[in-house]
From TrEMBL:
Pfam families linked to this entry: Curlin_rpt
Coiled-coil region: none
Annotated source species: Marixanthomonas ophiurae
GO-annotated biological processes: cell adhesion
Signal peptide coordinates: 1-19
Name of the protein: Curlin associated repeat-containing protein
Length: 338
């Protein structure tokens, strides 16, 4: 009986030891690098490599099968990874000086990848739920990225090249997708999506361009392309399967698109300086096309109802157009040039 008892104790201790089979590998080369690793659970894995001076890494993992890989090369880079749950994964690569990354993941099989090359770039990733994915790539000086995702299978991709670019992505729901690409100096992008399968694509090249995208609902789509300086775009969509495309090439062009309902579509194209477009659509399957080429042209389109269509074409200097349509299947064509 005593023999059986001690065998049982040995088996329990062996099982407990296996249950705590966490693994951590830390390699440090340089001066005054610091690493902290805390793992609670089983089969969590951590890899930390530091080369340089005053780099700091903190890893906290609670749960099972979580994975963290942090690589730091340079001066005074800092990384903080906190994962709680099952099979979450984080990779952080920092090359340069004073880069800062924070990753917080709670749930099942969330994945985060952060790459920072340069000086004083900052990234904050927060994911809660299951199968969310975030990819942040920063090259340059003082770029800033903030990604917050709650739900299932949301995906965010942020690419920043240059200096002082800023991106904020917030997604709540299932299967939302955001892609932000910023190249240049001082560009700003904000994407907020709540619902199911909304999709946003923002591309900014130049100086001081600003974009805001807000989508609430199911299957809404927004595409924003900005090339130049100080262009501004705001897209707000509420409902199901609304679609907005904004293209801006030049300086200080502004576009506002508001759509609520089902399957409304808007296309805005601006080429030149200080052109202004506003599109407001409410209802079902309304469509608007605004093309502006020149300087100081203004367009306002208001449509409510179903199946209304508007086309505004402006080229030259200082044209002004206002279109108001209420009802079903109304059509309008405006052509202005000089």
């Amino acid at each position: 009986m005593k023999k059986v008892f001690f065998c049982a104790i040995a088996l329990m201790l062996g099982t407990a030891a296996f249950a705590q089979f966490n693994q951590s590998f830390v390699n440090q080369t340089g001066i005054l690098n610091g690493s902290s690793v805390n793992q609670d659970g089983f089969l969590n894995f951590n890899f930390t490599d530091q080369l340089g001076i005053l780099n700091a890494s903190n890893v906290e993992q609670d749960g099972a099968l979580n994975f963290s890989d942090t690589d730091q090369i340079g001066l005074a880079n800092s990384s903080d990874v906190d994962q709680d749950g099952l099979a979450n994964g984080s990779t952080v690569l920092q090359v340069g000086a004073f880069n800062a990354s924070t990753v917080t993941q709670l749930g099942i099989a969330n994945g985060s990848s952060v790459t920072q090359l340069g000086i004083a770039n900052t990234s904050d990733v927060d994911q809660t739920g299951a199968f969310n994915a975030s990819d942040v790539d920063q090259l340059g000086i003082a770029n800033d990225s903030d990604v917050d995702q709650i739900g299932i299978a949301n995906d965010s991709d942020v690419d920043q090249t240059g200096a002082f670019n800023s991106s904020t992505v917030g997604q709540l729901g299932i299967g939302n997708q955001s892609d932000v690409t910023q190249t240049g100096l001082g560009n700003n992008s904000t994407v907020t999506q709540i619902g199911i399968a909304n999709n946003s694509d923002v591309d900014q090249t130049g100086l001081g361009n600003g974009s805001s995208v807000l989508q609430l609902g199911i299957g809404n789509q927004s595409d924003v392309d900005q090339i130049g300086a100080f262009n501004g775009s705001a897209v707000n969509q509420l409902g199901i399967a609304n679609n907005s495309t904004v293209g801006q090439l030049g300086i200080a062009n502004t576009s506002l698109v508001n759509q609520a309902g089902i399957a409304n579509g808007s296309i805005v194209g601006q080429l030149g300086i200080a052109n202004d477009s506003e599109v407001n659509q409410l209802g079902l399957a309304n469509g608007s096309l605004v093309l502006q080429a020149g300087v100081l042209n203004t367009s306002l389109v208001n449509q409510a109802g179903a199946l209304n269509g508007s086309i505004v074409l402006q080229s030259g200097l200082g044209h002004n157009s206002v279109v108001n349509q209420l009802g079903v299947a109304n059509g309008s064509l405006v052509v202005q040039s000089n």
